[in-house]
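Subject: complex prediction, re-run

Hi both,

The earlier run crashed halfway through, so I resubmitted it with identical inputs.
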Amino acid sequence: MGVNHSDSGAWVLVTGAASGIGCDLTTSLLDKGERVVALDYDEEKLTKVYTNHKTSLVCRYLDVCDVDGIARSIEMIRGEVGTIKGLVNCAGIYPVTAFLDITVEEWDQVLNTNLRGAFVLSQAVAQLMVADKVKGSIVNVTSTSATFCRPGVAHYGSSKAGLTQLTRDMALELAPYGIRVNAVAPGVIGTETVVNVAKLQGTEEHAAKLASIPTGRIGEVHEITALIEFLLSNQASYCTGSILLADGGLTLGIPRYQLGN
Ligand SMILES: NC(=O)c1ccc[n+]([C@@H]2O[C@H](COP(=O)([O-])OP(=O)(O)OC[C@H]3O[C@@H](n4cnc5c(N)ncnc54)[C@H](O)[C@@H]3O)[C@@H](O)[C@H]2O)c1
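This time it finished cleanly. Structure:
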């Protein structure tokens, strides 16, 4: 499945590419012959994870919280690689803190990473796409937490709710330029970060988490990557403003409710 664009030499930017969903996506795109700029603020990890894709991969340090840094980086990347046809805003953090204990600093860190970063980067990339007359595709990685409440993620949920609406607003305003903007909303996916949190929480809490998912399992990373690739591709040519939910039924309702109770 090729990524959406007439220019096969153009590049796709992926943030949060050093681990989890962003890393799996970058690897999968490279395996399909795409050219990828892998971005992350964990530079050490970023350079360690990719070894075999010398010509079709560019790895660059980027902190999505650094507004001036984003402007500089995008200008440099543009000079280095040329046309950009796709952007995936995957960088994100998800600390778990009770609402009563969230500090303003933690709130700002979550909102700046998950929402403001995606805004600043998407705007910079969309401006280039418009200038270059590129009918590009932007995909945001939001979350079921945008609409589905659970304790400890008031800041995270707010950031993803904002990102969901930003996706729809961008889709509306960029449609006249032929730029599509969509999002995937994963439920619980077994990335290293999530697995480590599960270990910290202990087996009981993990079992409770599984019991809350109708399909009885957490999702695999490739199950999200496939959806992002679909939204990037021409197969999704009539999709814009879509929020593609992939949560094993988590947000459907109460999974183990006994009839008659
Ligand atoms: N894993 C899940 O269950 C799940 C569920 C719903 C949504 N998501 C979303 O998917 C995305 C990826 O999640 P993941 O589980 O793969 O996480 P992860 O922790 O494995 O990867 C996130 C990456 O983002 C990078 N990053 C964080 N802050 C950054 C910043 N300021 N600048 C640049 N890079 C930064 C990290 O270094 C890391 O490489 C996130 O946006 C997350 O909210 C994940």
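The chain has a mean pLDDT of 93.

- K.
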